[in-house]
Amino acid sequence: MPIIFGLAGIALWQAAVWEFQVPAYVLPGPIAIVQAYIGDYATLNAALLSTLTVTFAALLVSAALGVALALAMAASDLARAAIQPWAVILQVTPVVAIAPLIIIWVNQPFLALVVCATIVAFFPVLSSTAAGLAATPHDLLDLFRLNGATRLQTLILLRLPAALPFFLAGLRISGTLALVGAVVAEFVAGSGGFASGLAYRILEAGYRLQIPKMFAALVLLGMAGIAIYAALGLFSHLMLRRRDAA
Amino acid sequence: MINVSGVSKRFPNGTLALDGVATEIGKGDFVALLGPSGCGKSTLLRLIAGLERPSEGQITWEGGAPEPGEIGFVFQDSTLMPWASAAENVYLPLKLRRKSRAATAGDVQAALAQVGLADFAGSKPAALSGGMKMRVSIARALVSKPKLLLMDEPFGALDEFTRHRLQEDLRDLWRRSGTTIVFVTHSTYEAAYLATRVLVMSARPGRISTSIDCAIAEAADRRVAPDYIAMVKRLSDRLRQEFAA
Q1: If pLDDT is split at 50, 70 and 90, which confidence band does B48 have?
Q2: Which of A45, B78, B147, B212 is the most buried (most CB within 10 A)?
């Protein structure tokens, strides 16, 4: 069904562009966009790959950092008090505002982009994993105590499996945010950055009034977002099935 | 087997949940703690389990403090791990004490058979009814062959038919195994049906107001036996007195 609506929308768009003879530098039709992509696919694909590399690196760091901080917060109230305010401050500060600083501080452009994207992406993993760890049923914790379970046993056999669905839900949100973060960071970095991502190609095409190419880059970005979301959905499904296989 | 002497419990917020509770739990007893919500009966159970420490008084075990696994605990909810099968849930207490799965597979299967779920070892909790989940929870408490089985209103959330079935099965189980059981309930019917001794509690602060021996002759249908009905009446009169005062 979504595919039918999508195709209908594209057909309507193309028809409107033909009917009203909209110039391509204002709004190119889908056919012009596909042509622009075919004409420039090597550059655009390379740009997509570059942006996706930053995105996945940021997602991996976000997942590791989010889980580590959530575990620290679950283990001690002191750690919670120390981490929580900073996590919230980083989350509410628009990355556009701090990206220039980070690009100055971190010399290596790839690393700077990953840091920016991580700042955008790590919060959902952290907050949902922390919520999952805190929601471990109390009765089960008592049962583990009665049977003399060690802290490590309680963590591995109870807290982590109980928090897994929360972590996965957070990871799915973080995945799309990592893409957003990567693109925003590339925009801010401009030609001073990595100079090869999709955002850079969008900027470049904009300056040169190559509007169809700009749209082609946007379409790639949208499809990448959908693919990441779907892939993480599949990943969640597989992880939960693995957990439930016992 | 267990001596409770002068036990009081005050929570950090200042509430005095229990005040000077003293009783003796003998080996093989089936003791019911009877009282309305908020009278501290669950707190007393948690103190006996060692999950909390008394503010005053002592709980002493004949032959020294229990080892992990010597106390089985059944909660109000079945509290199973939803991601694990019935057998895996029952295996948990053994797993925590590093007993190998292979060496204890027979014990796990026997515990499931004891509660009538031999054929459901591989089922996930989501696929089981409320009564069956509670049976798995009881099997999990029994698998380590505990000296003491503590049960905190385990049948409160079940429908009447299921509750009666589980009460009957629990009584059979207790008669066959001779496990010592302390059972928290707010139902006079349940206390009279199950227990050999009923401790009637008073509320705020919680005290044991009366201990009633509940010797009802074994009958084919205990629920309509005259001495059972007389016991229910005696218990509810006692409770009414307690809470009218």
Answers
A1: very high
A2: B78
Burial class (CB in 10 A: 0-12, 13-18, 19+), B164: middle
pLDDT tens digits for A224-234?
Answer: 999 999 999 99
- Is the Cβ pair B97, A147 closer than 8 Å? yes
Please tell me the distance from the alpha carbon of residue B218 to that of residue A173, in angstroms, as a whole number. Answer: 62
**Residue pLDDT, tens place only, A142-180:** 999 999 899 999 999 999 999 999 999 999 999 999 999
Which parts of chain B are beta strand (E)? 2-10, 16-25, 30-34, 56-61, 71-74, 148-152, 180-185, 197-202, 207-213
In chain B, what residues touch A143 (CB-CB under 8 Å)?
A: 73, 75, 79, 92-93
SS3 for B70? Answer: coil
Q: Which two tokens stand for residue B134?
A: 């509670």
Q: Mind telling me how many Å the CA of A217 is from chain B's nearest CA?
A: 43
Look at residues A10, A13, A37 and name the one whose alpha carbon lies nearest to residue A217.
A37
Model confidence band, residue B226 (pLDDT cutoffs 50, 70, 90):
confident
Sign of CA dihedral B129, B132, B134, B139: negative
B172 inside 8 A of chain A by CB? no
3-state secondary structure of B54: coil
The CA-based dihedral angle spanning residues A103, A105, A108, A111, taken in that order and rounded to the nearest 10 degrees: -70
What is the phi/psi pair of residue B59, to 5°? Answer: -120, 115
Mutation pick from B89, B96, B124 vs chain A, by most beta carbons of A within 10 Å, is B96
Q: CB count, 10 Å around CB of A199? A: 26
> What gap in Å lies between CA B26 and CA B40, rounded to an integer?
21
With contact defined as beta carbons under 8 Å apart, do B73 and A142 qualify?
yes
Q: Give the pLDDT band (50/70/90) at residue A192.
A: low
